[in-house]
Design goal:
Blueprint (H helix, E strand, L loop, with lengths): L4 H4 L6 E4 L5 E4 L2 E4 L2 E5 L12 H14 L8 H14 L3 E5 L2 H4 L8 E4 L10 E3 L2 H8 L6 E5 L1 E2 L4 E2 L2 H10 L3 E5 L13 H4 L8 E5 L9 E5 L1 H5 L10 H16 L1 H20 L12 E4 L3 H13 L2 E2 L1 E4 L5 E4 L7 H17 L29 H4 L27 H18 L2 H19 L1
Parallel strand pairs: 4-15, 6-7, 6-8, 8-11, 11-12
Antiparallel strand pairs: 1-16, 2-3, 3-4, 5-13, 9-10, 12-13, 14-17, 16-17
Helix pairs in contact: 2-9, 3-9, 5-6, 10-12
Length: 448
């Protein structure tokens, strides 16, 4: 039977494309590709800490002492978690291998999620506004909302204060995945710190690997809740943890890096808006440039590479765009060089006529401001929910039995961890074989 790619990629909303192959990173501002050096216009290393000598030395020291293996219970992990608790005023902290590894442990079938989020949570009810959230949370048995506080593909922030109010009115939990670590907030604590909503969030998940280099995610929240999942998920390698810990200390103490990052974003946004580019609701250093055509986006990426600019694009059919995320280490001359490349290409290549352009100077989400989004055309706020296949009548319903209706979030998480651990240790090879044969028989029966 031939495999239909459209079925396998049903939940893929777009794909990221980089316009060059990176052979080396001589600095945070440049990449080496096929013997040439290109200026970086799109990176995850926004503060330039991934190339900082102090961060690299911390990683190398941990590598010499502990190697590459994932060693649980290391002093490096304990020190990092204690430092994070102190910096962000959290009751407890836990570092895990990946933020999406945490989601299967949560009772997502009894939670809602914003449709604009990038992460796939199939069992959660999708909502598009705080009003929708309040309606969803009013249903019996609903525990709360999983929210992505930053939208890097659009450059704006979620309406977290209003979502938090909806959760408070419905006595529900608010779990936030915050990609703003190191970028937003007075100390770089993320969008929740930027909006002073720490007390209203049950759990904060801060992915590492962006402005704070490393791997995995830092989870902040109630001690009992985090203790219920501690040990169920592996921690990143000590080398990665040591680099993240050192980078976090530098980001907190060297506030000029964050200020410079916003200065670079301000210069680029002002230049793009002045030339008629549609940057949508952007108020952060993640700057999208709407092109609205996948082939045109690929053409722009190739042309930028020829001009010595390393850039990424989000290829999503009629919602395609360029994604700029310029590091704080760029000089004014380098920023001007990137802006000049965009001006030259705008005369050479077609720029789609945007529905609405606001050429006023952008107001960014700097510390002390409460900007969450800029006025934008309708195509930026249009949401394309992931296509969902309805449950087959023969398949069991994912809703837990009524005996679990009154369990707290911590108890449900603990129950999920215990169940998964039991399955991993108790299901033998014979049982797995019988289950696979039964599944194969069911598939053959449906084909006939």
């Amino acid at each position: 039977m031939a495999v239909d790619p459209s079925v396998l990629s049903r939940n893929v909303r777009g794909r990221m494309k980089f316009n060059c192959r990176v052979d080396a990173l001589p600095s945070a501002s440049e990449v080496e590709s096929d013997g040439a050096r290109l200026l970086v216009a799109s990176t995850d290393d926004l503060l330039g800490l991934g190339c900082d000598a102090r961060v690299r030395e911390a990683a190398q020291t941990a590598l010499r002492k502990l190697g590459l293996s994932r060693s649980e219970g290391t002093r490096t992990q304990a020190d990092f978690e204690a430092r994070a608790m102190s910096l962000f005023g959290a009751d407890a902290a836990l570092v895990i291998s990946h933020e999406e590894a945490l989601l299967p442990l949560l009772p997502t079938w009894r939670m809602a999620t914003e449709a604009r989020g990038r992460r796939s949570i199939p069992e959660a009810a999708q909502i598009t506004s705080p009003e929708d959230a309040e309606v969803a949370l009013s249903h019996p048995g609903m525990l709360g909302l999983i929210l992505e506080a930053v939208h890097p593909l659009e450059g704006d922030l979620a309406l977290t204060p209003r979502f938090a109010e909806a959760c408070q009115r419905r006595h529900s939990n608010l779990l936030v995945i915050d990609d703003g670590l190191g970028v937003l907030g007075p100390t770089g604590g993320g969008a929740i710190e930027h909006l002073s909503l720490q007390a209203q969030v049950t759990m904060r998940v801060l992915p590492l690997g962006g402005a704070i280099p490393g791997a995995g995610a830092l989870v902040l929240g109630d001690r009992e809740l985090l203790d219920s999942v501690r040990g169920a998920l592996p921690a990143p390698a000590p080398m990665s943890l040591a680099a993240s810990a050192r980078a976090l200390d530098i980001a907190v103490t060297e506030t000029a890096r964050r200020a410079r990052l916003f200065d670079v974003a301000q210069k680029m946004l002002t230049s793009l808006k002045g030339r008629g580019f549609d940057t949508g609701p952007c108020v952060t250093p993640w700057i999208p440039v709407w092109l609205g055509d996948e082939a045109l986006c690929e053409q722009w990426l190739a042309a930028l590479a020829e001009l010595g600019i390393a850039c990424r694009g989000w290829l999503a059919g009629p919602r395609s765009r360029l994604l700029l995320a310029m590091p704080a280490t760029l000089t004014d001359a380098q920023v001007a060089q990137i802006a000049e490349a965009f001006e030259r290409l705008s005369r050479k290549l077609q720029v789609p006529e945007p529905g609405s352009i606001n050429k006023d100077a952008p107001v960014l989400a700097r510390p002390g401001s409460y900007a969450m989004g800029a006025p934008a055309a309708l195509h930026w706020t249009t949401v394309d929910p992931r296509e969902r296949r309805p449950l087959e009548p023969e398949l069991p319903h994912t809703t837990p039995p009524s005996s679990a209706e009154n369990l707290t979030l911590r108890e449900l998480v603990y129950d999920a961890v215990e169940t998964m651990t039991w399955r991993a240790t108790s299901v033998g090879s014979a049982q797995l074989r019988r289950s696979a044969e039964a599944l194969r028989t069911l598939i053959d029966k449906r084909r006939r």
